[in-house]
Amino acid sequence: MGNIKEVLISEDKIQNRILELAQAIEKDYDGEILMIGILKGSTIFMSDLVRKINKNVYMEFIQVSSYEGTESTGTVNIKKDVEIELVGKDVLIVEDIIDTGNTMGYLIENLKQRGAKSVEIVTLLSKPARRLKEIECKYIGFEIEDKFVVGFGMDYNQNYRNLPYIGIYDNSEENI
Ligand code: 5GP
């Protein structure tokens, strides 16, 4: 597909890593697991992850906004909220990528304020070089360099989410 400079992480590598994450999560949690996926980027990762866990997973979703194109706007707003009571719950947030940490920092605080007993994070990707806010992330798929990536749920202006691999987006030309 145009504007993908290179494949950064292949489909096989992603699936192998997701299996490892699923096994670690399954081992760490007793009984049902409450996962909150962050829309829309986490959906592909979450759907593969939950199907590799041999325990009941309760799936919730939350939507926040902080990005326009390839730039973080810095302010985070909840656009669609979860539909459950959070008091006393052990929550596992599912994210596609942690970049500056602004989104995750805001969400952790928000879910805790609403009474969640614990909040842990599983993210497919992390860009540590870009971090502005320190985030304790229990499960990380891959740490990557400071490159704008698309595919496997991640978009550029709502495109490329359905790529089965993670690619580096080349924004030198603006056509898809
Ligand atoms: P943060 O708040 O950590 O800066 O940004 C988190 C969100 O920004 C992610 O959920 C994702 O939607 C978006 N994001 C950050 N880096 C990238 C990237 O390289 N590619 C894409 N497609 N989205 C990104």
Quote the CATH topology: Rossmann fold
Architecture per CATH nomenclature, i.e. the level-2 architecture: 3-Layer(aba) Sandwich
**Mean pLDDT level:** 93
- Major beta sheet summary: 6 strands, mixed
Q: From the alpha carbons, calculate the radius of gyration and give it in angstroms.
A: 16 Å
Q: Could you give the order of the helices and strands?
A: EHEHEEEHEEEE
Distance N to C terminus:
8 Å
What structural class results from the helix and strand content?
alpha/beta
CATH class placement:
Alpha Beta
Q: Which ligands does the model contain, each kind named once? A: guanosine-5'-monophosphate
Assign a percent range to the helix content: 10-25%
Q: Tell the overall outline.
A: globular
Q: Can you list the strand order of the major beta sheet?
A: 4-3-2-5-6-7
Low-confidence stretches: none
Secondary structure tally: strands: 9
Strand content: 35-45%
Structurally, the number of domains stands at: 1
Oligomerization state of this entry?
single chain
Describe this structure in words.
By secondary structure, this protein is an alpha/beta fold. The protein has one domain: Rossmann fold, CATH 3.40.50. It is built from three helices and nine strands, in the order βαβαβββαββββ. α2 links the parallel β2 and β3. α1 (11-28) crosses α2 (43-50). The radius of gyration is 16 Å and the shape is globular. It starts with a strand and ends in a 7-residue tail after the last strand. The mean pLDDT is 93. The structure holds guanosine-5'-monophosphate. The site of guanosine-5'-monophosphate has 21 residues, from β3, β5, α3 and β8.
